[in-house]
Structures are given as C-alpha cells and as structure tokens.
Design a protein that fits this description.
Pfam families: Mntp. GO terms for molecular function: manganese ion transmembrane transporter activity. Keywords: Cell membrane, Ion transport, Manganese, Membrane, Transmembrane, Transmembrane helix, Transport. This protein has one domain (about 5-180). The chain is built from six helices and no strands. Helix 2 (about 40-65) packs antiparallel against helix 5 and helix 3 (about 70-95) runs antiparallel to helix 6 (about 165-185). By secondary structure, it is mostly helical.
C-alpha cells in the first residue's frame, strides 16, 4: 500500500470517528448539565472511549461473518437507551432532593456509554465487511470519541452553572431528542 492511499484511509477514518464522536459530544453536553466533578468527567470520557473501541471491534468481527442486519438493531437499541436516559433526567429535574435513577456512575455509566457507542457497532459491521485496518480504526474511534465526550461534558458543566435548576431538564431534553433522531431520522 502506498503512502497516498494510507493517508487517504487515515483521513477517512478520522472523519468517520468525528462523525461517530459527535453523538458522544452531544450526549456529553446533555449529561454535563447535571452536576459532575472533574474526576467523573475524566472517567466518563475514558469509558466512552473504551466503548468506542470495543463496540466497533465486535462489529468488525461480526461484520466479517454476517450481514448488516444487526446495524438496524444497534441503532434502535441506542435510540431507546437515550430516550430512557432523557425521560429519566427530565422527570428527575422535577423531583427536588431525589437523586436521578440513572447517573453516569457505575451501571449508569455503562448504560450511558453503551447508548452512545451502539452506532460504532453498526459502523464496525460495515467496516468489517470491507476489511479495514482493525487496530488503526478502533484506536482512532476511541481517542476521538473520548476527547469529544470530554469537550461535551465540560461545555455542559459550564452551561449548567448558568441555567441552574433547569439544566437537568434541558440535558434530558437533549438526550431525548437525540434518541428520537436515532429512531426516527428526520
């Protein structure tokens, strides 16, 4: 493989990683509207980065064996999880003093990371069929999504200070809208 085609593949993968990572940024923006410490933001970004490594990796492996039927299922599951998180955050914003049912800690963090990385699984299926370089692909996807998640969470944290008590409802609305967009592309 010559340097020009390698550079072309690298640019293509970075563009794909940015496109996939933008959902992590958007959802991070919404999740950042709840009160998070910097340590939590760090762990959330790393967790989402890891999920954006292993989800496309699994997708690529399966994509080499099966058709792209699972891509639609992954998108539906991701949309459903985001809707669930969004509705939960909206309801939690009206209950003063109660902790939200799902927070980006422990199991909630796993659900959160899974919801934003399911589209990476779908892309991994496609890339597996076409036989792209696995290690390069998953490394770029993981790093870009981690950085974009951190940016989204940090911007959300800043906005949260301005919006006060309405910030959690706004964050939930963002997650809900993003989930609906996954289920009903418009």
């Amino acid at each position: 493989m010559d340097i020009q085609s390698l550079l072309g593949e690298l640019v293509t993968l970075i563009i794909m990683a940015l496109a996939l990572g933008m959902d992590a940024f958007s959802v991070g923006l919404g999740m950042g509207l709840i009160k998070l410490r910097l340590r939590q933001i760090f762990y959330i970004g790393v967790t989402i980065g890891v999920f954006h490594i292993w989800m496309p990796l699994v997708g690529m492996l399966i994509g080499r064996l099966l058709s792209d039927t699972f891509g639609t299922i992954a998108t539906l599951l991701g949309g459903g999880l985001l809707i669930l998180l969004g509705v939960q955050m909206i309801f939690a914003s009206f209950k003063k003093g109660d902790d939200p049912l799902i927070t980006p800690v422990g199991f909630g963090l796993i659900v959160f990371a899974l919801s934003v990385s399911l589209d990476s699984f779908s892309v991994g299926l496609s890339l597996g069929i076409y036989g792209t370089k696995t290690l390069l692909t998953v490394t770029i996807f993981g790093l870009v999504s981690m950085v974009l998640t951190w940016l989204g969470l940090l911007v959300g944290k800043k906005v949260q200070a301005w919006l006060g008590s309405y910030s959690e409802a706004l964050g939930g609305s963002i997650l809900l809208a993003f989930g609906l967009k996954l289920l009903f592309p418009f």
